[in-house]
Amino acid sequence: MHYPRARQTLMSLAVASACAAAAAPVYAQEATAAAAAATQPEVQSVVVTGLRQSLASSMNLKRNSDGIVDGIVAEDIGKFPDTNLAESLQRISGVSIDRSIGEGSKITVRGVGPDFNLVLLNGRQMPTSNLGDLNGRAFDFANLASEAISQIQVYKTGRAETPTGGIGATVNVMTAKPFDRPGLHASIGAKGVYDTSNDNLPRDIQASNSLTPEVSGIYSNTFANNTFGVALTGSYQERNLGYNTAAVSNGWKGPYQGNAGPLYAQQNQITNAPAANALYSLPQNLNYNFNGVKRQRTNAQLTLQYKPVDTLVTTLDYTYSENKIQTKRNDISAWFNFGPSASNWTGGSPSSPLSWTEFVTGSDIAMGAADFATKTQNKSLGFNAVWKPTNTLRFELDTHHSTAESGADSPFGSSNTLGTASFSRGTTTVDFSKDFPVLSIQGADFVKAGQQVTGSVFTNSYMKGQVDQTQVKGAWKVLEASELRFGATYSKVENRSAFSNQQRDTWGGATKPSDYPSSVWHQDSIGQYFNKISGSNNAALFNQFYTFNFAQVRQLASDVSGQPALYLPKSTFDNDARTGEKSNAAYVQFNTDWDTKLPIHTSVGLRYEKTDVVSTALVPAATGISWVSQNEFPITFGSPTFTTLTGAYHHLLPSFDSDIDLTPDQKLRFSLGETIGRPRYDQIQGGQTLNSLVRTDGGTGSQGNPALKPVKSKNLDLSYEWYYGKQNFFSAGYFRKNLENYAGQSQIDATPFNLHTPVGGALWNEAISTGGCLTSDTTCIRSYIFANHPTAPGVTPPGVNGNVNGTIVGQPSDPIAHFRITSFSNQKKASLNGLELNWQHMFGNSGFGVSSNYTYVHSGLRYDNNAIGEQFALVGLSNSYNVVGIYEDKKWTARVAYNWRGEFLSSTFDGSGPNPQYVEPYGQVDVSIGWNYNEKLSFQLEGINVTNQIQRVHSRTQQQLESVTQAGPRYMIGARYKF
């Protein structure tokens, strides 16, 4: 069925703009305004009551839009096709998602990462807050439930009337409003959520039940002859889950060239040694961690609409969301010191260890635990008024105050680690030949070398984003088939991110085994928790570790130490970065239809944007370096101080959109434009921050640059669309983005605060020259100093414990420590291009259908695995495809969806330094089945990740594992009743 666009009248443009999903985000209220104008023709719309109708409405969103737009429309009020908005967005071509705790959280669009995609709520810019990505701009969709969402619009081309910030896309999340569907509409739903991943956890961190509740409801009604309306939605969900990860959590040391580096520092046993011209890297550590998570998500929205006269519609709305997450973790790890070793290597370059063995005696088998909680709240209060004084003139005022705030929700902080160890580790080997890294340990004896608390870290993090924004917009019919749109915006965006660490650096032993009754340690095995990962059943696996109750052992350690404050987070922040951005914008846009042989619609616009940046940061001043264990040199910090830096930029952003009706069912689109994406907050924060731990080769830190300019993208889009049925279409599109002003992340060598380090000092050199210690054998060097110079300045010998846990403080005669400081500057350019294919087909009246898409993205700026040092490469770049099978009749609705994302670069730095992290290809199957008992009552069954896929990340080669994670499927069964 063909839905023609009326031509040659300005009214046609107004009507097209008012269609559900036809308008730009700034005209999200247009449908309401159109309904208020009695003289307007009836808006051509689809009343969405089923899945097939939902697909038809989504198709018309794409068809009737200016520029290239995709989206998803709810099949019924209060019912969205996925339990998470990010998981819905991944069904759209060009959109890929990043997952957290088994759910979609952030989006990458057309190869452009999460920080450069702008999220709007009803046309309003939303603040961001995410402790997992402190200082980022990426919006976390996991905070928003789907029940109150009526549709999502993804604008892939920029226009003058669209707010700036989205290079990949601008995503407009639209909520249900009473005037959109007059009359009474209400429903209530309940689900039971069963997450199988909770069953695959150690008992100390496992939730008591894997079945949790979810309830939701929506009420919408209009009164007084549809002049007043109210809509109230709410939802609450609990979820208990788990995931287990094997990781080289502190990254790979290197890379090193050929015959250089620690592999050749002594006579090691090397099989198939890396070639002289090959790069190689060494693992810093290996860690198995087991994580139990409880999540409670609450969403609510109240919307009031009032139409005092036919020409004026006002809307007042308040949106609230809260996401509370509690995490418990146990882990076991082994750290490598690059002493005498044996290894077996892959060929080629980069070369990677298939196995790595270190010959050690009495080292630590480290086992830790964590127990922390976080809470994120989003609040948005907004007012909108649409006034149409005449048939040719329209004005709109929209203003809102929105906040996003995240922080600790536990007396133990927003993150923590309580370390324990048995000092009985002998020769240690890691086998990297399979997907699962196999750790083998000889000589372990938990009886002779009992477990004891070592070091600890209690972190208190906080982040708050705030947006105050006022938009004034207008539209004027100036010719029969033309419209002039204009507007101005004032935005004040503030971001605050702060944290402090209460860190006890006694990793060589803080107490003694006898301080803890044996009953607090609970023996468990490792392999059972990774049974879906290849290699986890290896007989060589050191398949023993101990879990413990974090709160119980923390209290024991606190009592023994006599310093309880060391085992709680600080109540103040040592690092506090505050950034404010004030932006003024104005735009003009001219839309017109051309009555040519092939009907043409064009839109030409220009947007001016000016932004002032003020960034203030509180950072601690470093005063010294202490050597506290084999390879850890924590910094001693003094009182923090504030510093302030400023910056400013302005841009003139043109745009042009055109579409041509080749036939009533076929369309060509062409778009040109410029868009900007603002830098991350950590890139523009003031002050210099040093990371607290220094190693033998120096320390690390970061420094922002508030004068950074935004990334600018010059965009070209071409698209062909064929609508060959009421619910059938095919489209093919090409896009190209030329990006400039990327902030290159580079490292400079610096000596901040002139801190002295024991490494290379007189006592260090004497231990090597006189004591016969190797440079890499830090245990030997420490032991020599304690034995021969126990009273030297800065030397505090070990206590009664007997482990090498004393301290050696850098003295004025020692060398000054060097730090690799990461900073940012506008120095990078990039280009990417790609193809998008969409096909949606319903097979007549059979009830069956298919919706599919494929996205190909390419850029020459890829990471060079055979290069040393900092590199610039586009993160998030990947191909993807979706296939969704559909069946629907009067009683049944079924959907089977497969989403696949190819390998992509997620970061250019790992825990060690400038090393890439590649997320390996991942495909997931989701299933949903619905049964309508009658017109009011329906039942649903849903399954997420039903094939229980694992996620794996590697560095320069597949053998250079960064992490591999096993979670599990989750299932939901529920019912919904409509009033």
TrEMBL record:
Record keywords, A-Z: Cell outer membrane, Membrane, Receptor, Signal, TonB box
Gene3D superfamilies for this protein: TonB-dependent receptor, beta-barrel domain, TonB-dependent receptor, plug domain
Main subcellular location of this protein, as a coarse class: membrane
Origin superkingdom: Bacteria
Domain TonB-dependent receptor-like beta-barrel positions: 420-946
Signal peptide segment: 1-28
NCBIfam families to which the protein is assigned, alphabetical: TonB-Xanth-Caul
Protein name: TonB-dependent receptor
Organism: Duganella guangzhouensis
